Queue: 4 jobs
Job 1
Amino acid sequence: MKKSINRCDIFCNVIDNYGDIGVCWRLARQLANEHGLVVRLWVDDPGSLAKLCHEADVARDIQHCRGVEVRRWYEFGNPPTLRYLGSNGDEEAIQPAELVIEAFSCKLPQGYLDAMVAQRQSVWINLEYLSAEDWVHGCHGLPSPHPSLPLTKYFFFPGFTKQTGGLLLERDLFARRDAFQADAAAQQAFWQSFGMEMPGAETLKVSLFGYENDALAGLFDACAEGSQPVLCLVPEGRILPQVRKYFGDVAPYAGSSYVCGNLRVHVLPFVEQERYDELLWACDINFVRGEDSCVRAQWAAKPFVWHIYPQRDGVHMQKLRAFVARYCAGLPPEAAQALHGLWEAWNGEVSSIPVEKAWNDFHAHRSMLRQCAQGWARELAENNLALNLLDFSRKIGRMRAFEIEGQ
Ligand code: TRH
């Protein structure tokens, strides 16, 4: 067993949307570019990556993008094995890396597991979903022995406390964010790249990334009737049919603009991950969804509204409330109530107050919510997932090397 970790394989099975690949792509770049690891990202749907990184070529099985080797993950043979034709046309057997990350419990190919057994060199991590619930503390870092092979994988939970693995945060993110926000020309260029003039200070800028949502019409009504002009930027995605329904228009596309009272809605193209951060930084309030955009909104340090990924049994509302409880702990009760009200209404909670009222309350408390967002981001930044993951993996690697030497 090698004691150092120089190579990393990340396996990503895209279930739906962009969160699975969004997290894996971010982690892959961070491990490669900030920590000098040789990273292979195995993804079964390179098309989803191409949305986040436009230079990724969907047709290629192997390619290098932004310091990461991206490989199409497909398996064949019995046992299912990852195999590729090398540049000389010969079949290339895959050597497992020292650090193996399966994202969100995706199932590693049997042939790859066998190679891990033969090599005895890999630390195997299951990177879990993000949750603010307390039970995560007891599960973070736990080993899970394979039922039949001499392999152990370890659960690694992202989270919001020191008893978890922390959150993905690039080393220079805050510096880039602050530089962007202090640079009028950079902001001007940002708006112009979407064919828009930079909105004046009197306009409230809102980004809106969400799933299908029955509360949208109420939110738009409230903005249209409000006293402050609102510019709402909607990236192309699942919520567009409802935008269309609200304005009774033909299908919206990137560049479509609609006006109703004090509300102007502008549809944006789906941009690369780095530019999505700029959108969050450029806006005053951000509506986000899933997992990764929610974390990015926290780093943007602006008031935000989370449309959590809906789960059939309703457990998502427990996750949502666990987060609200942590996030609002330092807020005055009225501001906490305003946040809670809009988040419940936006997530379709039946007992919630009408979204129009919830929006007006949230809007009224935005200055306090902004202060809270800034403090929250500073506090959370202390707990960096990539650093924690590497420390943890090295510790497991040393422990295993010691065990193997003793055999
Ligand atoms: O897309 P999401 O809803 O993804 C997920 C998946 O549904 C997943 O299966 C589920 O488990 C998880 O949510 C909780 O939301 P998320 O996680 O915010 O991912 C969106 C990614 O897309 C994120 O990395 C930000 C990025 N993005 C861009 O790069 N450009 C854009 O224009 C937009 C709107 C988003």
Job 2
Amino acid sequence: MTVYSGPVFEMAASQFQVIADYLSIPHDERDRLLMPKRAVTVSCPIHRDDGTTAVFEGYRVQHHLTLGPTKGGTRFAASVDIGEVAALAIWMSWKCALVGLPYGGAKGGIGVDPASLSKRELEALSRRYMQEMIPFVGPHTDVMAPDMGTNEQVMAWFMDTYSMYQGQTVTEIVTGKPVSAGGTLGRREATGRGVAHLVRRVMRDLDIEIAGATAVVQGFGNVGSIAALELYNSGVKVVAVSDHTGARYHAGGLDIPALIAHCARHGNLREAAVELALDPDELLTLPCDVVVPAAMERVIDARTAAALRCRIVAEGANGPTTPEADLILHQRGDEIFLIPDILCNSGGVVVSYFEWVQDLQQLFWEEEEVIRREYQILDRAYDRMMERARRDKVFNRTAAMAMGVERVRGAKNMRGLFP
Ligand code: NAD
């Protein structure tokens, strides 16, 4: 029996069993690696603007504490439940281990649509959530960051709330803060920038000319919009983008800076150039060089995987491809190159790590330094994944996850089982 359930948790668990089989991990060792160390559920009451009281359920899951504190984002979305949060925490562990960070994975969230709250209500809920979490988090225990539905402003409220209770400013309690409140240069752009960097590397390896290549991007928030902008700035024609309000298409390439400016003014793509509207269901299967899913989990299922008409899938989102879809992609052989999520979007946690280190030292870096180190870590992890995939003739996701699992397992085995 477990409290974790739902399709996203089942997906993380079934992916792990594939890796455990490949690594021949004995069955009695598997639960110790897979099952989260701690999970907490909190009730967060707030006063609504109309004078009523509303209660929202919040979660935090810490997957393992073997390598250091846990680290992971906080998601505000109506669909959030503890199974999804646990899956995201597990993926975060393999990701941190793959790129060599001294963290276990964590994730948190609240089951709320942030668009349904006023700014005052959002602040009240963010502060109440952090206040409820104080016994469970800390700069050397568990460090939060943004994810879907949260941003720099929410991180600033988290940091302020924690600091008020400590009686001193504790910037290192969260990452993804505004630069003006102890954040690092280059964090807001880090995930999308890393996605685009890896796409360019793969294009070079596959002999795809970058200038004039085509891309589609699903999701136009922090990750999707920056990935689209970076690709656009590299000369890639981004022919389609989408968000939860709809999709936009232009065969000659969209004006990404104009769409970002539109979203900054209006909050979404809804009113942007309606003459270019596209059915969002068609987006991922458009013919193009690169597909970047950068919105949510499980959007590439077996049917979509069979219908993809791209050369590269760059997983900006966490868990966008189901295990059934993975099998189809595998069967398609070299037709489609997958940059798996735990590598593809790891630029975010890499630069979060830099932010934490800078906050602990109170010594801040130039943006060039942040970018140079981010790309260095991504390149190293990419090279190691490719070497492993070629050596063992396994799928890129298998190679990447196996390297993450191996590092956690190695540390657990060396430390032993307490008491
Ligand atoms: P965000 O809230 O900034 O943006 C999410 C975007 O997805 C929005 O544009 C939203 O409209 C869109 N969206 C939601 N439902 C959609 C749908 N059905 N179809 C198309 N678009 C839809 O979130 P984000 O931080 O950009 O995160 C996106 C993904 O990237 C998530 O899977 C998250 O876990 C992952 N991720 C984020 C970071 C980070 O640093 N923010 C790091 C690693 C991974």
Job 3
Amino acid sequence: MMSILKSWRLLPTLLGMAQLMTIAAMADAAEPPPNIVILFADDLGYGDLGCYGHPSIRTPNLDRMAAEGLRFTDFYAAESVCTPSRAALLTGRLPVRSGMCSDRRRVLFPDSAGGLPANEITMAEALKSAGYVTACIGKWHLGHLPGHLPTRHGFDEYFGLPYSNDMDRTTAAPQGRAAFLNPRDAYWNVPLLRNDQILERPARQEHLTRRYTEEALEFIRRHKSRPFFLYFPHTFPHVPLFASDRFKGRSARGLYGDAVEELDWSVGQVLAALRREGVAERTLVFFTSDNGPWLTQSEQGGSAGLLHEGKGSTWEGGMREPAIAWWPGRIGPGRVTSELGSTLDLFATSLKLAGAAVPEDRVIDGVDLSPLLFGTGPSPRDTMFFYRGTRLYAVRHGSFKAHWITQSAYGPDAPQEHNPPLLYHLGHDPSERFNVADRHPEILDSIVAIVRRHQAGLISAPTQLESLIGSSP
Ligand code: MG
């Protein structure tokens, strides 16, 4: 009798515990969405990191990031030059849909009047409306006039260069590429901005990687208690190459290696800060590059490893990039995937993780890579379109890639059309050397059908890259 009474008297306590457990489960379900950090190199090649086989550039931090996370072998930038590539990353859309590409001027320049159209929805805007605090630290290159700066595209904070570090060349610079062999700040009158204000001009380029990194660490420290989005597009290893005193002259690969090794240091600093501030287990960090190596810069340009061609080209070397995803406790360590992914996918992936709605009033070309990241399923991406400006040059589907048009990255050669297209099996032949079109007519047919479907619904926006300051558009 006593024991029953005792049990009855315990019941409210048990109910209380059950309630507490329910509340705990609810709190768990309502756990804040993860922080998103995108570390974006400029002109870094597929072969330029230790974990991608470079023999003389030391990248211990990126190698460790790969060992702790997921490394991609077949990840693509959305375009082969800066401006369209960045527009695609931030909007999840092919540049041809936003107008952020051109056949005449492939990127924005200091005399450009245009920029990312205000009606595009950036990752920063979408994440901000889901409660994130947002920062862009580094090179923007999506319009440098006040109406086009990051602060107009959803970024609460901005610190960096508005375009490439080789622009605004001064009369102090030696002719041609000689300026890159022994670069000096005075050769380029590039401004360093904080939000909408010029902080310094010309920017002290040898300090940029260190200062960007300090800004990033400070942003993480200030906002560790709420979800944040840090978009960190580095200035280097785009030419002219600079490194701080700690790194200059230290790499066995020369100045290019110095710049990459400092970038690697920066990655290590960011990951260490996330750990130190106790947020590593709720942060997705993604590292990749905007386009392949600038091969015409000779020793000042990077390497695409075994891939053909580089920056500016729709061959693999122009767009296939090193890519590493890192999230301790969520992304299993030491994984390597050969499934497809693209910078186009970071938009949908981030919005999904943030619980933000992916826009339905426009075509989004990216897919949510979560199944691939977390090892729960295959990549939803099986096709990659290779545009040069407004024209579709090549398409990859599965292991095969068909080229309708080929053209060297730079130089006077006209585009060369192929009918039937060239066909390469990228598994057997990652260097795209052996055309197997005559052996696989059925593969060509299936890729042709994919192209027809893609082009049938395609609406190209007017280009934003050709209007000049002071002239009517
Ligand atoms: Mg670039």
Job 4
Amino acid sequence: MKNYKVTLIRGDGIGPEIVAEAVKVLDKTGEKFGFKVEYADALMGGCAIDATGVPLPQETIDMCLKSDAVLLGAVGGAKWDNLPGHLRPEAGLLGIRGALKLFANLRPAKIYGPLKSACPLREEIIGDSMDIMVVRELTGGIYFGKRGREMVDGVEAAYDTEYYTAAEVERIARVAFEAARKRNRRLCSVDKANVLESSRLWRETVIRVSKDYPDVELNHLYIDNAAMQLVRNPKQFDVILASNIFGDILSDEASQVAGSIGMLASASLGEGKLGLYEPIHGSAPDIAGKGVANPLATILSVAMMLRYSLDEAEAADAIEAAVEKVLEDGIRTPDIYTEGCKKVGTVDMGDAVVAALEKV
Ligand code: NAD
């Protein structure tokens, strides 16, 4: 039987509640598809600050590096908000991505048929559903380029630099092409090549890489047009590839179009198979400990883990189908509840997905 090592970073707020449900689902999937998962718990965020004084202990990094994948709940909370920046829980998030050399962020934005009413767009725009994957470069570009402040002729000025090497563009492009291959084989690369030199290098490089993926249809959009098309006709997109800053903006826009924050998963990947999987939402301190958090984003993050780190695509499909079934059966946590449905808490939602796995 295959064995996988998964590090669990439960984190703060609702983190431990939602990770517990995702673990239940992963174990059930293992039973069904013939693999076993060995878990190790690691600290990050507020709970790590309380226990060790820092948001990302070295021990956590070492444990993650030794595992096949990492599942993260969420970190942060008011208790730690007044600490200096490098000691805040969120510093752990940046730190772990850097330590694991995760340069690609994959964020699906999907509307499930039964949750269509959560989408802010009109029905004739959205149709039956929407299913987009945003692939964002995570460790380069303007967020990491040369920056500074200076006085110019007595006037204060500041600058940040959008800087990419062709190698950085190539490796994120390959992740996007591979993702497109696992989906509907369409890739839209986003840039501002009509204005920015860095975007011209981006576009040339993506075109060069595309020669290795003749089965994937490639097109290009300028960022301003892409932002508009996402709300005008989101169904045209399958995979969107973007730089760090453009991807930051587009992935948030796409998640708003999808509507429900408790439903959206994400993956951060590096050169190898090791990946970090987490819901896109935060630690939701307002509902922590109440047993009402929606665990589906974390459960769907486990499906991404199976697909991208563990090469268990069938098991990933089964989890996604089980989530669809639960939604079709009208089972809802309060955040996605509409009249006529059955309102359940976090644990019951996890149990419902486990039960649905028997049937898909
Ligand atoms: P949030 O995503 O935690 O919550 C926003 C709203 O969405 C809240 O009303 C919350 O109750 C609701 N919500 C979020 N997830 C939900 C779920 N699974 N089920 C039901 N409702 C859900 O964002 P915030 O309130 O801005 O931030 C809270 C804390 O989380 C802050 O400390 C912030 O820094 C941190 N944060 C962490 C991450 C992360 O760990 N990746 C991401 C974003 C924010």
